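Weekly structure sync, notes
Attendees: PL (lead), two postdocs, one rotation student
Agenda item 3: pending single-chain targets
PL asked that the sequence for the first pending target be pasted directly into the notes so everyone works from the same version. It is reproduced below exactly as submitted, 170 residues in total.
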Amino acid sequence: MTTTKKCLNEWNATVEALGSGKQSILIRSYNTYEDSEFLLYPTHSYANKKIVPDCFRDECKEFVDENLLPERDGEKTLVKYYAKVVKTSEKSKSRIGALNKFHIWTREHVVSHMDNKKPYVWLLRVYKLDTPIMLKRSRGMVWATVNEDVELKGTPVISDKEFKAIEDSI
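Predicted structure, written out during the meeting:
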């Protein structure tokens, strides 16, 4: 039985896009991660900022509006998914647009967060937890820990065949 307390903090709309199969990658300015398996912890602090509409592609805005805020109970947030990093690859900024079908952000948003660094694409295999759980997390901008061990047991959100096709395309 594999368990973890490690979580990646990510906007709730992105977590739900990963959890629904609308998204299968993360684009980061670094190629390192603490663990190859981690919980996807949905965050909400950005939800009232005016930048939100400009971060997501037009065809994804309705989905984003419906998934702006995670389910919360006091200081706890509902965690429904975990991910495994299957592979990472370096891409040029000029290739970011070619990856649009694998994420919900605008190219401009992705490039603006690279801080003149090279983009790295993380291909994630995302799983829906068999038992979603309300959890409190420690502070941390990107990585954090939750208040209890969570069993990484769940069902892939997309089929093996679909995932293989995505993997071959990236």
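Discussion points:
- Strands lie at 3-11, 25-28, 37-43, 72-73, 76-90, 120-135, 143-151, 154-156.
- The longest strand covers residues 120-135.
Action: rotation student to compare against the earlier draft before next sync.
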